[in-house]
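Q: Please design a sequence for this.
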C-alpha cells in the first residue's frame, strides 16, 4: 500500500471537501463527542486549515484522508471511514516523520 500512497498540498479550494471528510471521519471514530460538540468543532475546523500545512492523501486516485502539520507538530490526521484499519494512518505517520520532520503528535484516540 505505501507504494500506492500519494499526496499533494491542500489549497483553499479543497476546504469544503476536507470538511466533509473530517465530519465523516469524526462521526465514525469520535464516539466521545456529542452532537453539539461535533457541530461546534465543525465550525472551527476551517479556520485551522489555513494555519497548518495541509496534505491530501490518495491511494491511486482515491482521496483517503488529509493531515495538517505546524512546524514539527502533527495537528490533524483524518481518514475516510472506509480507509480506517488498513494501514493508511501508519503509512502517513511514517512519511510525515521521515519527510516532514514531524516529531510530535496529539491524538484523541
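A: Design:
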Amino acid at each position: 500500500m505505501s507504494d500506492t500512497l500519494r499526496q499533494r498540498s491542500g489549497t483553499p479550494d479543497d476546504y469544503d471537501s476536507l470538511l466533509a471528510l473530517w465530519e465523516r471521519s469524526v462521526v465514525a471514530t469520535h464516539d466521545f463527542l456529542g452532537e453539539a460538540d461535533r457541530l461546534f468543532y465543525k465550525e472551527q475546523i476551517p479556520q485551522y486549515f489555513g494555519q497548518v500545512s495541509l496534505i491530501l492523501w490518495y491511494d491511486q486516485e482515491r482521496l483517503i484522508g488529509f493531515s495538517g502539520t505546524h512546524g514539527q507538530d502533527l495537528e490533524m490526521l483524518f481518514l475516510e471511514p472506509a480507509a480506517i484499519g488498513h494501514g493508511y494512518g501508519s503509512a502517513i505517520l511514517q512519511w510525515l516523520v521521515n519527510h516532514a520532520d514531524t516529531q510530535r503528535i496529539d491524538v484523541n484516540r
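Q: Thanks. Anything notable?
A: The two ends are 23 Å apart (CA to CA). The beta strands are 5-9, 53-59, 62-70, 73-79, 104-105.
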